[in-house]
Amino acid sequence: LASREGHLSVVQFLTLEAGADVNRADKWGETPCFLASWRGHLPVVQFLVSKAGADPEKAQKNGMTPLIIASQEGHFPVVKYLVNDVKVDTEQTTKRGYTAFDQATTAKHKDIAQFLREARKQRHVRVVEELLGLSPAEKDALLETSSPLIYLLSLFPVVVDLHGAVRIYRTASPRLPLLPDSRETQQDEEKMITMT
């Protein structure tokens, strides 16, 4: 109740003095971090995660996480904190398969949807950079595109073997685009944001 209503001093007392379990969930699977995120109480979320050790990715019974509910409810400061500072998984889904991006788009929170789309792109770039050791020019080009995966596939020859395994080969030969321009993906996402 204290987390849901944003009573930071009560939350601090309950966790630091009374020893309350910050990851204990109610009958719906809602934790104090989830409830504070749902209501947009950023200072409570920050305290629970950074000082009290709350799990910022713990999902309720239907799979909603603090990020997904904050995105759905339009609490941009909470979303930015969870993504930028805590580095939660932006691709986590509900049991019905909806991401934070999906929920923000459906609820017509265009600023959050655009932020999450950019965060997803940044995450993909980091993963690709770590796995393949891209040159600075390749990394810059990857950041410029709306769909890093499609751009990546246009840089590297991709072979799918008889067992369905995907192999990416780095070669010195000229690179030819293997897939259509990624602008189609960007336009689809922009339509999705604009239509809602």
Question: How would you describe this structure to a colleague?
Answer:
The chain is mainly α and 196 residues long. It has helices at 2-5, 8-17, 32-39, 42-50, 66-73, 76-85, 100-106, 110-132, 136-144, 148-155, 183-195, and strands at 158-160, 166-168. It has a two-stranded antiparallel ribbon with strand order 1-2. A hairpin with a 5-residue loop joins strand 1 (158-160) and strand 2 (166-168). It is elongated and about 55 Å long. It starts with a helix and ends with a helix. Mean pLDDT is 79; it is low at 166-185.
Jot down its keywords.
single chain; 196 residues; mainly alpha; elongated
Q: How would you summarize the topology of this molecule?
A:
Layout: H1 2-5, H2 8-17, H3 32-39, H4 42-50, H5 66-73, H6 76-85, H7 100-106, H8 110-132, H9 136-144, H10 148-155, E1 158-160, E2 166-168, H11 183-195
